[in-house]
Design goal:
Blueprint: E1 2-6, H1 17-26, E2 31-37, H2 43-48, E3 55-65, E4 71-77, H3 84-110, H4 117-121, H5 132-141, H6 148-156, H7 171-180, E5 184-188, H8 204-210, E6 214-218, H9 224-237, E7 240-243, H10 263-271
Parallel strand pairs: 1-2, 2-3, 5-6, 6-7
Antiparallel strand pairs: 3-4, 4-5
The protein binds adenosine monophosphate, zinc ion and fe (iii) ion (2 copies).
Length: 281
Amino acid sequence: MIDLHTHSNVSDGTDTPRALINKAHSAGITVLALTDHDTTGGWDEATQYLRPGMDLVLGAEISCQTPEGVSVHMLGLLFDRENEPLASAMAQTRENRIGRMERIIGRMNENGIEITIEDVYAQLSEGGTLGRPHLADALIAKGYAKSRDEIFADWLHNNSKYYIAHYSPTPEEAIALIKGAGGVAVIAHPLASLRGRTVSLDSFSSYIEAGMDGIEISHRDHSPEGQEILNSVVKEFDLIPTGSSDYHGDGKLNQLAENQTDPSAWERLQAKAAHGRVIRL
Ligand code: AMP
Ligand code: ZN
Ligand code: FE
Ligand code: FE
């Protein structure tokens, strides 16, 4: 079982990297990618607690934004975390997320919602990537709602009056950064329309030109029709299809390995990585 996209509490998942490894091992996963948002901060702990019989794929999910303001997530796998351009782009995104959170909180305060940046930090692990889910958790702790889903539906979705974007590279820039660091680039859930606007298929040619290796197709936020369309894109442009859970612990309903990557696709993807190899005991 190959699951190439999961989150720990080093971003907006709720399991520590160690707990994530243990749960993946119990679930029978043989290849697990750790892809926290805009950070490699969980890599060492995941590596330290790796279990026998499991390959660990170190990666990150890079937040991107198109010039038109559409949010895109780009999975980078098997890259060199010491690579300066990529590391500093992720650091810039993380830094910018702080000011962005303060502005979102300011808007909420103006509308009578009582929440502070300290409340939000209380929901985030030390050094982790700050995101809207932590604000949701803080609002839940204050009794404003019962679940992240509820808060996102009411207040935190991308078309909400409280929504503010943060600095992000464009998808093309992110792909170039990942490839420049020796990794492979896979666009995450490109047709997940519930989250807001999605990129049109026309933009894929520009991503392919930038070096994109694959498309995450098998994902719970994709309809069967959407997956069919993406499968034809993958065939037409000789890209690599992946599948994943996008597991966030208790932060989402997604269960580990609920969607998976085909072993032959994973072989092809690995062969494209110039820097990294999987971690194995
Ligand atoms: P941000 O990176 O701060 O813009 O927040 C986006 C994150 O919120 C993404 O990683 C999503 O996984 C998460 N998210 C989006 N919608 C929901 C939802 N309805 N419930 C829980 N998490 C969500
Ligand atoms: Zn997330
Ligand atoms: Fe994502
Ligand atoms: Fe994700």
